[in-house]
Amino acid sequence: MNPPNYIYQFRISLFLFLSLCSSMLHATSVKLTETEMDFIKENPVIKVHAEKAWRPFNFIENNEVKGYSNDLIRLVAKNTGLEIEFVVGYHWNDYLLMLKNGEIDVITNMKRTPEREKYALFTQYNPLKAIDGLLTLDETSHYLDFHYLKNKNVAVVRGFFYEELMRTHYPDINLLLTNSTEESVEQLIIGNVDAVLDSYSVINFYVQRYFITGVTNAPLFENPIFSHLPQYMGVNKSNPVLRDILNKGLQAIPNEELVALQEQWALLEKKKNTFVDTSFQQIMPVFTEGELIYLKSKKQLNMCVDPDWLPIEGVRNSAYTGMGGDFLHLFKQRLSTPIELIKTESWSQTLRYMKQGLCDFIPIINRTEALDKQFAFTYPYLRFPLVLVTKKERIVHTLEQVLHRPIGIVKDYAFKQDFEKNYPQGEIREFTSAEAGLKAVKSGEIYAFIDSLPVMAKLLQKDYPEIKIVDKLDYLHSLSLATANNDPALVGIFNKVLATITAKQHEDIVNRWLPVVYETKQSVTWLWYLLISIVFIFSLLLFRNQVLKNSNVKLQDMQDKLEQLAMRDFLTGLPNRHYFLEQLEKEWARANRSKQPLSVVIFDIDQFKEFNERYGRLAGDSCLIELSQRLLVAIKRPADVVARYGGEEFALILPDTDEEGVETIVAELFYLLKQWALPHAGAVSGNLLTVSAGSSTLNYNVKYGVEELIRRADNALYKAQEKGYNQLMQYQKKRGD
């Protein structure tokens, strides 16, 4: 039960009074520069965002702005002489836009991401590391490992940092964007999503407020992506003076007062091991009155498809077939409006018909920035990797090896834009279909062809045995359903339809079409008898083995977790030195087989000891965590490894990468650090935190080993620091190397 309003006011008044007294006793009055004092004179009132319902951090109750973040900014204002005007009545995404446009001055609880750093500056001090939580209707042990959420639906608030990090680190998880945590929880209860990702404390509030049972709110203590990201105060990028004032105001708050404030809002949570076994019945989509009227007004829905992209989709004997055909069957079960196939001759014609308004929707399409301007998309419900294929006799291992030769793709496929952006030196040729492209590979017209893995596997096994798959690209076909941009009602309807398709239904459809079945005219009756006998005997052995296996599952799970922890750095969540060295040995052996170069880069934070002494160990830890996240953003290829090498040193393993490739990757990292702009008054190279890097590149040579790679990178790092820091130095090979 919430206390009466006058009690709340008394508590706040008493807290602020004690804080003022404590500040005087500790002699922590804020000393502002002349520039900072002029800023306050010119801007006597700063506008601060205030959320409607993000308890216990930031919310409104009885027309009063309350919560931890708002009490904290009040303390900062008291310390610095700032005056606050709370801006209320908007959604989170609106506040981000208002900060970007300079319509408000401060967001008080903001997590730092690369996207936000394009328009915002953040305080150096982060007085709260609020743990994130995952709310599910299943056992926590099942979903705490996010890999189990692959192809499932997770609700996050639109614009929250979860959206950006989920798309970056977990692209195989479907996101449903909502306007509030309360709406996210509601989507879980009605069955539209499998989980809710938000602050652990905020989720707890709504679970308790609405007496929700049969759910588990699991704190993400061990998740490397979400558990270590603190909350900062953010200001517009054009306003560094205000950021510095806020930093000083935060620094002036004694630690015991911060702890008291956190205890007041019940933010010091302990780990909980609560496992609830729940289940719920599959429900059909629930449409709004407006959506029902829309469907009733439509005599039929016209659909255009790719006519030749099996097993994903295609048209055979005038019927829509493949995975898309099976999904269409589920769509029809959930919609009363008839769906009619509009025939086209090619994918290009399908896109043209859609733009001309001849089709209401395309069931399977890859979303791109260009198409976003013309169509509206559901969340992705199919994801497949792209692969590179070429003739079997050719010695090819990676896409980079064939960029100087003609490569084929299907005309108007979305991948073309990404390819031209990432590989401007490549030569692309377009074909009307995947089969036409493979014929061109076979005839020698083009050197290689790129398409989705299921499509290539089917065609190669059936008709093109002389062609092979040589590389899986770092790119996923994330396939959604698209409607016209001027038809938002229909995309909302299909999102609801897709949300009711179970994981098992989804899995059954994909598995039904992935295997390739061969038929033969010869009689194989004797083979069936032999096969049945073998299966019977094998089943007995399998049953016995399963009994033994089940008894060891818990022990194995525990062993796996311990092994994983042994290979991870506790602070940053990155692989540790032991894992790095183990992987480097494996990549060195692979370099021997592939005859491709292998590179190692070692980073060191410049004057990190001075940074720790000036700003404190807590700020130093935050710095290490933030740098690790930026390294992960810069390192995009699956085979690359980023690890914490020790202390303030980080290391990269870059397979199949020469000196020029190292320069490109490190340049991106240096750009991200420049955007970071973390103050470091003791830095020799300026007033911002910087890093130095040393790299070495070797082709496999029997007289060298991984020790030589590391020695050379260390030597180059030393020279980078010797020459003035904040730069990359590559090991200069000597005669005879």
Gist?
With 737 residues, the chain is α+β, with helices and mostly antiparallel strands. It has 26 helices and 30 strands.
General description of the model:
This protein has 737 residues and is an alpha+beta fold. Among the domains are: 5-128 and 231-264, 3-Layer(aba) Sandwich (D-Maltodextrin-Binding Protein, domain 2), CATH 3.40.190; 132-219, Periplasmic binding protein-like II (D-Maltodextrin-Binding Protein, domain 2); 384-480, 3-Layer(aba) Sandwich (D-Maltodextrin-Binding Protein, domain 2), CATH 3.40.190.10; 566-730, Reverse transcriptase/Diguanylate cyclase domain (Alpha-Beta Plaits, 2-Layer Sandwich). Helix content is 42%, strand content 21%. Strands 19, 20, 21, 22, 23, 24 and 25 form a seven-stranded mixed sheet that branches. The longest helix has 27 residues, at 525-551. The protein is globular and about 80 Å long. Residues 16-28, 268-282, 515-540 and 553-565 have low confidence and may be disordered.
**Helical run tally:** 26
Rounded average pLDDT: 79
| Helical residues, percent | 40-55%
Q: Tally the beta strands.
A: 30
Q: Which regions contain 5 or more consecutive residues with pLDDT less than 50?
A: 16-28, 268-282, 515-540, 553-565
CATH class category name of the domain at 566-730: Alpha Beta
Q: Radius of gyration from the CA trace?
A: 29 Å
Strand content: 15-25%
- Named CATH topology of the domain at 566-730: Alpha-Beta Plaits
Ends distance: 75 Å
Rough shape?
A: globular
**Considering the protein shown, what is the CATH homologous superfamily of the domain at 566-730?**
Reverse transcriptase/Diguanylate cyclase domain
Structural class: alpha+beta
* CATH-scheme architecture of the domain at 566-730: 2-Layer Sandwich
